[in-house]
Every structure is written in C-alpha cells, then in structure tokens.
Amino acid sequence: MRILESKFVKGFIKMADDGYQLGWHERNGGNLSYRLKPDEVQSIQPRLNCPGEWLEIGAEVPGLAGEYFLVTGSGKYFRNIIVDPEACIAIIEIDEKGVNYRIRWGLVEGGTPTSELPTHLMNHEVKKRVTNGEHRVIYHAHTTNIIALTFVLPLNDEVFTRELWEMATECPVVFPGGVGVIGWMVPGGRAIAIKTAQLMEKYDVAIWAHHGMFCSGADFDLTFGLMHTVEKSAEILVKMLSMSPHKLQTIQPQNFRDLAKDFKVSLPEQFLYEKE
Ligand code: 13P
Ligand code: ZN
Hints:
By secondary structure, the protein is of the alpha+beta class. 40% of the residues lie in helices and 16% in strands. The site of 1,3-dihydroxyacetonephosphate has 12 residues, from loops.
C-alpha cells in the first residue's frame, strides 16, 4: 500500500492539522509520534527506503527494540504537514538495543525527527509496558491556556488536577487518573525525558511549565480528545480567573465521589482534598 494512503498516516496528518487549526502549533511548536502495529509495518514494508545510517536517539529505550514510529520532523511546521507530509514527517526504525534509530521514509528535503524524540520514545516505552501495548500515540502541543495557568497555579499534580476537574463535569471521566506537572526545564534532552516518563507511569497527561503539554493514548482520536478536553478546561479556568479570583459555587469533593460511582471511574482521594 502507498504509505500516504495508509489509514494510520492519514489519521496522523489529520490530527496534526486539527491541532494546528486550534492554535496549538505556532511555527514548529509541538510534535507527534505514533507506534506502528506489526500489520501496518508489513503493509508498507515494500515502500520503505533502503536503511540509512543509524543515529543516536539520545536515550535508551530497550523496550522499543525493533519498533517503527511515524514522527514529526524537527523544525517542521505543523501547518505544512497537510500540504507536504513527505517533507515534514518520517517513519523511523529503532535498533535491537533501543539506542539508535534510522529513517526509513519521509523527510525528503532532509532533517531529523523531532528534538523531543527522547521524551516521545521514553514515554512510548513506559506506556507500552503499563498499558500492555495499548497506547500508541504521544502528542506534544503548545496549548495556550494550560501554559498560562502554569504562571499562576502552584506547580503540583493535586492542584492542577483538581482545578481542571472542577471546570467541566466531563473532565474527571476523561482523565480520572489526573495530570502530572513538571517545573520549567530545558526542553529537547534526556533529563526532561526522564522526568516526563516518570509521570507517564501514572498519568496520561504531563504538563511542562511555561511550555506545553504531553498526552498519551491508544489512538489518534483518544489522544487528541484528551489534549482538547484538558485545554478546554484550562480555557474555562483562565476565563473564570479573569472574572474573579473566587468561585461562588463549584463541584465539591462529594460531587466527584458521586460522579465516580455512576460513571464507574475511580478518582484518587489525593485530588479530593478539602480546601480552606
Ligand atoms: P521540534 O520542531 O524539534 O519538534 O521542537 C518543537 C517543540 O515544541 C520543542 O518542544
Ligand atoms: Zn514544545
């Protein structure tokens, strides 16, 4: 099958464009990766390029040995992905040790995978393990309202989770595990990858202070929907805080417990603390 006609490539391109349309990808901001299924690798195998040279990932991901990923290119603009996908995205193969990758398709005008490849792959490695292989998508976006909140809320998991849950009733159902938060760090390297992957053991959402968000999910719809829901909730919180620093009424801890029962989700008590 022609690579650009395969369903997973079309889904990847649509997701990237949806994110661009929502204003989350100024310039080259953000990146996306997808772990191919064995039958997808097989269906495109004849169309892959001859293997080029192995390059260092910048992190060790033995749990991903031999896997193939579709990834966005470093410095490529999300707004161009739909227009010229072969120049903006690539399929990479991971070596048998999980320390090197090589490009097998795409990036036809040159370039390398996203500078956040260490974070993407370390997140994939964790998620492949903790979800029994179910999660395949890692998405990083520069979501405006979440970024704004990292200047005014304390940078901890409890406060972010609770405030986001309170802003929209569906939130605790969409991300019952909550969200993790990391204070500002230099992006693009191994250190921030390690920190983010630690959060991904527990959460499907990791917030990078003054930078953006990472989401993990089983497919493009679920991962995009998760990013969209968290960011929408952040937008409501920004609007609420712009009107008044105080809420006149809100969803209370017992309301969340009642919701959890009816919607059959478990909401950790750590987020249902009593406020002053
Ligand atoms: P890349 O263009 O290398 O993917 O970097 C964009 C970005 O958002 C870095 O955090
Ligand atoms: Zn970024």
